[in-house]
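Give me structure tokens for this 362-residue protein.
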Amino acid sequence: MATFEQMQESFEQLERGTPRLNAMRDAIHEADRAQNLIWQFWFRYDYLRESIFCGDRYYAMIIFPELLSLYENTQMLRESKNFSHYMLIAFRWIVEAAPEFPQISRKEIDSYFRKFKRMLLEQGYSLSIYDSKRSLFYLDVDFSIAAVSFYRFLEEELDSVSDGKGLWYNHQVQFYLTTGDLERAEKAAEPIFSGKVKANDIPYTTYHKFCSYYVYHGNYAKALTYAPHFENYADGNPYYMDYIGTLMSLYARLDLAKGIKAFNRNYPLYMASKNPWLRSHFLFGTLHLFERLAADGTVPECIVVPKESPLYTMVQEENVKALAEHIYAEAKDYAMKFDARNGTDHYTLRLEIPRDKEEKHV
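Here you go.
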């Protein structure tokens, strides 16, 4: 039988995503059967990381409580600087991902944040990453809390567990756009757009933030200037369905054919995803697109969906009104779940984009 080291080497050779996750789950079962605490922790950590970066984060939500319980109930793990550090990294990922699942309550999310803060302080780290992630979550929940965390984040030192300068500026962009402070948002974006700082999906995410801002303020011409900078990056990528949703909202007003093309290419990704946040934002854009098709009386001859899709019969019958109504019901269901968890109407408002025929300028 393969050793645990060999199991780890084996699954690291597999295709990222589902094939690797399946092999990791088998390895977890073997470690559990052998009651090997070290590998019970490492295999769960590997599984969490794979779901965060090469999955839709759904399985991360399942494995994290197991990882946390194992850590909290094992003195040897808690007393190890190495295991404690990697538990901290896992917390960093989960406090960002957990809000994407409305079935995870605010109470549970707040509990994660408290434990994350405590571990950062115990290990001597800055609270920069804590206040960054906390302010991002509360932007959709309670702006006063988000603002307190944001301004603390600006003053705190960046360290080895913090986001780098690129994300530091990107977070400022998001905060200032939320408050409608375009001048500060544009100033914060300058180092990103000039290429002076880079990180992960930057500058694409920054371009998307500005595009989304202008779409939801009715300035479609301005939004269009940002779209080309992230469109190819997002198209066909299951982790950026929110970007595609924004593009469909934009093209619902400017280019229906292009919007339909974006829908066709990415709808199978929506069907396969288990991430409610990504699915909801894709649906918002789909809703805006289909409502515009219905309003214009356009026959959706070019819409293509798999036979197993609940939309298939409506597409075959070219019933665009029924399509729009079905998508509205799905999108509203997600919006209500997020708003119920957050105690706001933020997501319900995302069902709407400016409907005036004349373009609004901000």
